[in-house]
Every structure is written in structure tokens, then in C-alpha cells.
Amino acid sequence: MTRSLGHLTVLVGVAVFALTSVSMAADPIATSEFDTDDEEWLVVSTLGYVGSPTYSSTGGNPGGCIYASDPDNGAWGFAAPNSFLGDVSAAYGEVFSFDISTDSLEGDTGWVGLQGSGMEFVAPFDAPATTWTWYERSVTLIETAGWVDPETMSPPTELQLKTVLSNLSALVITAEFTSGSDTGGLDNVNLVPEPTTLALIALGVFGLVRRRR
Question: Is the dihedral of CA 183, 188, 193, 198 positive or negative?
């Protein structure tokens, strides 16, 4: 690994309940849009650096964002605040997405890292395609989505990933895509269900109503 380390009255009731469930499922588990401040995100590196990012009320996608420059010779990234940590087992199978930008591109892969219950797993995401442009990237929190133990390069089992998510102590998004110094930005971080999953649920509900009619 490189630096860039879910009779008519009854039917109406069923439809309302199911659509309400879809709407609830669509609510973010956690989100950061950086509208007013850095929302307690941190900048970290593999050499032990921990610091605060710079907040900007403009330049995001749109609105505010956070950014930082390479703090040392290690790989660096953005570490999530407590709102994304703890027991987030409900996030299993969901999508973790974010917008990222950089001023320097060398590698073509970034990483999202999870730590919890004495285990660590990372999953790749595509680097921004061009410099100083916001790109949405995402990883899915399921064991078949490219997650591996960075020491053994072995994928987690379902139980292992669920265990990590039930006691998540760290979530890091790498922001380095070059071997030299660089500056990277982060915006619109969201842990939400996949839209395709929600669409399938909605279609299933309406199909049920039509069949019963």
C-alpha cells in the first residue's frame, strides 16, 4: 500500500407505513456539510500528527468546506468526529459518501479506513480526476465492497465488519494522492442508504398495492 494510503383502508395504511419507512431509511446516519464550521473533523497522519483543518465558508460544493495541507512526510487524511463513531451498526450495508479535492495528483486511489474492536479495515476509492475540482466518491459498508485488513490484505467476514461498526473508534478518509506535499479538501460527507435500494423498496410497495387492488 502506498502513501496515498429495506379492502382499501388496509392498503392505504400499508402504503403509508411503507413509504414512511422508506423516508426514514433515507435520513442520514451522520452528515457533515460544513455550513458554519469544521464540525470537529481532524487532520491526521500515519506519523502521528493530529490537528485541526482549515475551515472556509466558501469554495465548497457548494458553500463551506474544510481543507488542509500535508502536515509531514506520512500519509495524511481527514478523521471523522464523534457523530460518525460509536455504535453505527445500522450503517452496515449502507453507503458512505463524500466530496474530495486535491491540488496534486500522482496516484489514482484513495482509502477510507475503519477502526474498532481491535480491528482495522480499509477500502479504496478513485482519486479525483483533475486537480482543484470537487468529485463525489463513496464506499459501501459491506464486506464484499473491497474492504481488506491493511496488514494481511484479507477481506473481513460479515461478522468482523459488523463488529467494527458496532464499536467504531476511527473513520479516516485519505486526502493524499502524491508523494510530495499537497493540499486537499473535504465536503458533503454522508452516511446514507443507497438510493437504488430505496427505489427498489418503493417499487416493491407500489407493486404490492397494485396486486392487492
Answer: negative
- In contact, 76 and 51? CB cutoff 8 Å: no
CA angle 180, 155, 138 (to 5 degrees): 55
Which among 57, 60, 58, 102 has a CA at the least distance from the CA of 77?
102
Q: Which residues of the chain have pLDDT under 50?
A: 1-26, 194, 196-213
Which residue type is seen at 92? Y
What structural domains and CATH numbers belong to the chain? 30-193 (2.60.120.260)
- CA–CA separation, 198 vs 18, rounded Å? 11
Rounded to the nearest 5°, which phi and psi values hold at 145?
-100, 25
Selection from 82, 77, 53 nearest residue 172 by Cα? 77
Using CA atoms, how far apart are residues 43 and 14, in angstroms rounded to an integer?
47
Give strand pairing partners of 192.
95
- C-alpha cell of residue 151: 496488514
Determine the Cα–Cα distance for residues 59 and 67; give it in Å rounded to an integer. 10
pLDDT tens-digit readout, 131-151: 999 999 999 999 999 999 999
CB 46 within 8 A of CB 75: yes
Contact 80, 172 (CB under 8 A): yes
